[in-house]
Amino acid sequence: MIDNNKHYNEKNRKESFKIAVVGLGFVGLPAAIGFSQKYQVIGFDINKEKINMLKNNIDPHGAFTKTEIENTSIEFVSEPSKLKECHYIIVAVPTPITPDKKPNLTFLQEASATIGKQLTPNTTVIYESTVYPGTTEDVCIPILEKHSNLTAGEDFFVGYSPERINPGDEKRTFTNIPKVIAGQDKTAMDKISHLYHQVITDVIYEAPSIKVAEASKVVENTQRDVNIALMNELSLIFDKMNIDTYEVLEAAKTKWNFLPFTPGLVGGHCIGVDPYYLIHQSRIKGYEPNLLTSARAINEFMPDYVVQSLLHLIISHKINLKNLRVTVLGTTFKENIPDTRNSKALDIIKKLEQFGISLQTCDPYADEDELKSIYNIQLKQISQLKKADIVILAVPHEEFKKDLSYLKDLLKDKGIVMDLKGVIQKNVLPENITVWRL
């Protein structure tokens, strides 16, 4: 761990450095804005529509206000040739998984090829995208060298610094969270350390190798995945025993070293994806990661479990199928953000539609046009919702939690609320309403 006040002498004044951020999504745009506090920044993305929006100071993802973007003076471009002007290039493109749950490095490979074609001597390329250990050195560097005809470690330098952006978190931002950095050699590490020390106000940790830095990111999210899977499996067990899982957890939390995880849906672009990168590489190396695969299987099963439980509630409460109506509150992968990538709430909606159940959906954060065009879901305002037999509180956005008494107005007499995040305390709703929790 190193001191943030460390001084590093560069030949050029820092004001003359130009930084490029490749990929302006949920990770890249915060990084570009963070670097722009101290450096000239070029924000590059191949999506011209996104670039046009950003040029008009509009964040397509809604994370930053028009004023915040306007005050950055970032040069937003879609022309790869602009990368030639930069001393540092930060890569923050998506690293999703394929339909068969294997790493999809397409965006990373294409970005590396684009950068390689524009790479000039003495440039430092830093990858922030989440990958399995070895990706930067075994996949990315060869592409950079091939397209640039330059040699890494001699003509240009490469490093890795895993992103830790938490969408919707206004307290933990790009500049004030601990940062892990790594370089392919000491020269690269010194350059990367100098760069990040200008903008990061928290601790910067120098990992001993790029592979260690890559692995640390995957482990951070895999640990959460495994812990949530444990809570989800306990929920499945306690349901069979007719025990309230949250009451058990409240009692267990009185022990000083109990970790307070809770059951829930695990989606999004990190926790629901990153473990597959480690699982994939582990299998290539000859070890079957049974715990990780079991945790993934449990968390992937939870949308099915919610639907099965809903069907059981319909039967046990003798609800008339002919007039059955279900309301789903929340479609994003987590609360208070518009991001629907890998949303398990959407999985629940799809499964209910397959049963022909009449559905109505509400989400104040999700993009109405996106849900309509991609998922064929027509969002409604709360005021437009008709009374339903069952309300699924899938994503507890702040608007849904301010005053839970509104739920009784969304339900028919003797209705049911399915609380998937345990936000409804007992005795909050009238006795005629049944509350089911994970």
Overall helicity: 25-40%
Q: What share of the residues does DSSP label as strand, in percent?
A: 5-15%
Helix run count: 13
Strand order of the largest sheet: 3-2-1-4-5-6-7-8
* Counted beta strands: 13
Rg over CA atoms, rounded to whole Å, is: 24 Å
Task: Describe the global form.
Answer: elongated
Tell me what you see in this structure.
The chain is an alpha/beta fold and 438 residues long. The protein has two domains: 14-208, Rossmann fold; 232-437, Rossmann fold, CATH 3.40.50. The chain is built from 13 helices and 13 strands. The strands form two sheets. The protein has an eight-stranded mixed sheet with strand order 3-2-1-4-5-6-7-8, with helices on both faces.
SSE layout:
Layout (H helix, E strand, L loop, with lengths): L17 E5 L5 H8 L4 E5 L3 H8 L10 H5 L4 E3 L10 E4 L14 H13 L5 E4 L7 H14 L8 E4 L18 E5 L2 H12 L6 E3 L3 H31 L4 H8 L21 H11 L5 H27 L8 E5 L14 H11 L3 E5 L5 H8 L12 E6 L4 H4 L9 E9 L14 E4 L1
Parallel strand pairs: 1-2, 1-4, 2-3, 4-5, 5-6, 7-8, 9-10, 9-11, 11-12, 12-13
Antiparallel strand pairs: 6-7
Helix pairs in contact: 4-5, 7-9, 7-10, 10-11
